[in-house]
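Mods, move this if it's the wrong board.
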Amino acid sequence: MSGGYNNALTAYDSFLGEMMGFEADRMFNLILNEDDIKTERNVILEERRWRRETNPQVCWTRRSTRHRRWKS
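Not the wrong board. Structure tokens:
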């Protein structure tokens, strides 16, 4: 099979209210401390840095954009 598979559902979801209640409870009772935030921030920055430094398209786009900015 080539292409994709679409399993979207447009009918009324009878569990939507219950799921929204779970989400609201999760967000209301969320406890964030500074150490957790720092750790997650560092992970995200490292992943972003790794993706940008290892992707030749990003490096080329960054160089060509910088060059155009200097010329104007």
